[in-house]
Amino acid sequence: MSVDVTLLGTGGGAGWPHPFCTCASCEAAAAEGEIRAHTSALVDGVLLVDCGQDVPRSAVRLGVRLDGVRYLLVTHDHHDHANGAALLWRRWADCTGPLQVIGPRSALDSLAQWLPPDDPGVDFIPVVAGDVVQLGSYTVRVLAAEHDSEGAVIYDIADAAHRLLYATDTGPGFSTPLRAHYDLLLLENSWGECPAGEQTRHHDLASFASTLARLRRENAIDDRSRVIAVHLGHGNPAPSVLRARLTDMGAELVPDGSVIRLGGALAGRPATRRPTRPQRILVLGGARSGKSVTAERLLAADPRVTYVATAAHAPDDDEWRDRIAAHQARRPAGWTTLEIAAQGVDGLAELVAGREPADAPVLIDCLTLWLAHVMDVVGVWTAADDVAAKAADLELATAVDALVQAWRTTCGDVVAVSNEVGSGVVPDYPSGRRFRDELGGLNARLAAISDDVLFVEAGISRSLLPDRVTPHQPPESS
User: Fold this and answer.
1) Residue 359, preceding bond cis, omega within 30 degrees?
2) How many other CB atoms sit within 10 Å of the CB of residue 326?
3) Does 181 participate in catalysis according to the annotation?
4) Cα separation, 254 vs 247, whole angstroms
5) Cα–Cα distance list, 56 to 107, 114, 230, 299, 359 (Å)
6) Mean pLDDT for all residues in the chain
7) From 78, 327, 373, 472, the catalytic residue
8) 140 close to 102: Cβ distance less than 8 angstroms
9) Are 204 and 192 in contact (CB under 8 A)?
10) CB-based contacts of 15: which residues, under 8 Å, 6+ apart?
11) Helix or strand or coil: residue 439?
């Protein structure tokens, strides 16, 4: 037994690309052939969720029949979700059966204006958050949306074996029923990298990631759930860039017309499987390049993350304390911070080596500070004679070798941040040259055994590995 969900559209209020816009995002979407109509989902050909102005014509272009629709769920009264003209056009057809239209009162009132009073073919059923409606074999739970429309809702739709959550339009402040678990989550990402999501009660990429992390902590979704971004607009980066960002979160970008089969295989692909990122990722970049934010975004949708802070305390340095505080403030809920400097020169290698697949991913920020701390502890800078210097060098080499071996053999997911210090002026003092050489060597050894290596310049990251050439979206700041 399976459920087929056809995405008649995945675009926002103006679709994507915006028909009157020439911004870089719209130009890229057009160039990449990614044309998206108003977001709408058709379940098994009989239950339609949202019907904006684009949707009927989109269905025709996709070769999808709507004459079998018996239930129309409307989330709210905005034009890209509630299109009364579609009800009028449906009335002009000869082969349609009865239709139940379910939604907030404000949306139903706007739709009813397109039909004669008491039209016998359409039954309007007002609902509010908390209602449960049985529509044929589907149990529909009405959930409150966080949106700027009166009574706006989202829908939890289940049959005897499968369950999906249609979550647009809404900000991150929605909740799901206790112990609910979804095979499919259609989650909006209206604003992408634009900072307007919170103001308009929509999701952007940052809140998209935090919502996924929350739902994973609540076990509402897991690695077998499919997560698909919908309600997309030109606040997002180019589709190729967005696809990479979503993959890092375990989510997908799919074209309009995609059919998602729950409970079976379709076109030779598994029914459900969360996309996975590479296991060991090294993020390189210069000072203030955005490398830390890039690394954090790779893990932002994970329910649990162990953040390994390598900086030693500097009690007399106010500026350094401010930097650390800024890093702490932007760490998501659910992250655990581990200060590794107090655990000896072998502490980081032991942590990495001991990771198992089920453990929380590890983010190490950063290897530059770790190496500097190790060099201090073993006495590289303070050796009083050649014997002490050789002993310090050996202890440093042993610590670095242990970390490289741990990186090679770890069974967990690990992301590490490090500075690229070899591209600038050669230091005119021996200690600077020594540190640059040591860090460059460590970076090269880790990169050689990493599953992906990202290089960040001016906030834009790209993979350095030939088989991972998809660019990553630039962060706003480091």
Assistant:
1) no
2) 12
3) no
4) 11
5) 18, 16, 18, 38, 46
6) 90
7) 327
8) yes
9) yes
10) 9, 35, 36, 37, 38, 54, 233
11) helix
Q: What are the DSSP E strand ranges found in 278-347? A: 280-285, 305-309, 335-339
Alpha helix segments (H runs only) across 76-177: 84-92, 105-112
Using pLDDT thresholds of 50, 70 and 90, give the confidence band for residue 264. Answer: low
| CB-based burial, 7-20: b 16+ in 10 Å, e otherwise | bbbbbbbbbbbbee
Residue type, 379: G
pLDDT confidence of residue 268: 37
Q: How far apart are CA 286 and CA 456, in angstroms?
A: 8
Angle (CA) 149-150-154 rounded to 5° is 70
Share of the chain above pLDDT 70, in %: 93
- Helix, coil or strand: residue 93: coil
Range list of H helices, 428-478: 430-448
How many residues can be counted in the chain?
Answer: 478
Q: What does the buried/exposed string (b/e) look like for 104-143 if buried means 16 or more CB atoms within 10 Å of the residue's CB?
A: bebbbebbbebbeeeeeebebeebebeeebebeebebbbb
**CA atoms of 352 and 311, how far apart (whole Å):** 17
Whole-angstrom distance, CA of residue 445 vs CA of residue 428 = 25
What's CA 340's distance to the chain center, in Å?
A: 28
CATH superfamily of 3-262: Ribonuclease Z/Hydroxyacylglutathione hydrolase-like (3.60.15.10)
What CATH homologous superfamily does 280-463 map to? P-loop containing nucleotide triphosphate hydrolases (3.40.50.300)
For 451-456, what is the mean pLDDT? 95
Contact between 294 and 460 (Cβ < 8 Å):
no
3-state SS assignment for residue 395: helix
- Check residue 301 and give its pLDDT: 93
Residue corresponding to tokens 């966080």 = 146
H-helix or E-strand spanning residue 158: strand 153-158
Reference 38, options 65, 66, 24, 19; nearest CA is 19
244's tokens: 């990479």
Task: Determine phi and psi for 26, rounding to 5 degrees.
Answer: -65, -40
Does the predicted model carry a pTM greater than 0.90? Answer: no
CA 210 to chain centre: 8
Q: Read out DSSP for 11-48?
A: B-TT-BS-TT--SHHHHHHHHTT--B-B-EEEETTTEE
Helical spans, DSSP H, in 146-259? 197-200, 205-217, 239-248
Q: Rounded to an integer, what distance in angstroms lies between the CA atom of residue 199 and that of residue 375?
A: 48
3-state SS assignment for residue 121: coil
Q: Where are the domains of the chain?
A: 3-262, 280-463
Residue 265 pLDDT > 60: no
